[in-house]
Amino acid sequence: MNVLIAAGGSGLEAKAATTTIPIVAMIGGDPVSSGHVASLNRPGGNLTGVALFAYSLGPKRLEVLRELTPSAKLIAVLANPANILALSDTRDVEAAARAAGQQITVLTATSESEFEPAFAAMVQQRADALLVMADPYFNNRREQLVALAARHAIPAIYEWREFATSGGLMSYGSSLVDPWRQVAIYAGRTLKGAKPADLPVVQSSKFDLVINAETARMLGLAVPPSLLAIADEVIE
Prior knowledge:
Shape: elongated
CATH class of the largest domain: Alpha Beta
Strand order of the largest sheet: 5-4-6-7-8-10-11
Distance between the termini: 46 Å
CATH superfamily of the largest domain: Response regulator
């Protein structure tokens, strides 16, 4: 017996390609509304897996960013308008900003060629900090985004730990260690004959806050003890 392992949008592509081969997927958004499964408890069909909260943590990232940059009058939000899920998350960030009395400006980029103009707009509008929305394309271009934030000396928060290890100021997102372990467990069970339709979708519940202390020092920022106390990792 074979089993397909899929991540992100490839889960839907795999599901469209076969109705017989079992699929274990890492799903970034809501598995039901995205069409991956019929329900979390009884997925139905030939796909199951692990759901990450990739597209619902924007407001929390805004909260953490504001705690590190309390004097920020304007926070820029970089979103990919080609990503429907990211746009929904952006609306949640806008609502959270209104509730907190925080002024934000939403800028967009769908390709690498649009990064420079977006950062130029941040500078022109005098943004004090940056929230980069969760997006697979942004993740694949993290080196460029981190470099632009460093060049313009703008404090930024991102989705995955890899942004912080690449020199980004900080990241807040679902931990990937346990989800991938669960994917491996489900893959093993399906190889032994279990049906994906009978394996409930697991929802990831662990989130990692990673702070790059070296980048903070370069930006002249003092990381408050309240953030250091809850950080899962501090990069010196």
